Amino acid sequence: MKIRQWTSRLLLIGCFGFPYASFAQDAAIPLGTPMPALDVKLTSGAGAPSSLGALRGSAYTAVVFWGNKCPWTTRYENRIQLLSSELTGTGKVLLLVNSNDAAAFPAESAAASTAYARENGITIPYLTDPTSALAKALGASRAPQAFVFDAAGTLVYSGAIDDSPGDPGNVKKEYLRDALMAVSESRPVAVPETKAFGCMIRTVR
Question: I want to staple 24 with a disulfide (CB 3.0 to 4.6 A). Which of 74, 142, 163, 185 is the partner?
Answer without folding.
Answer: 142
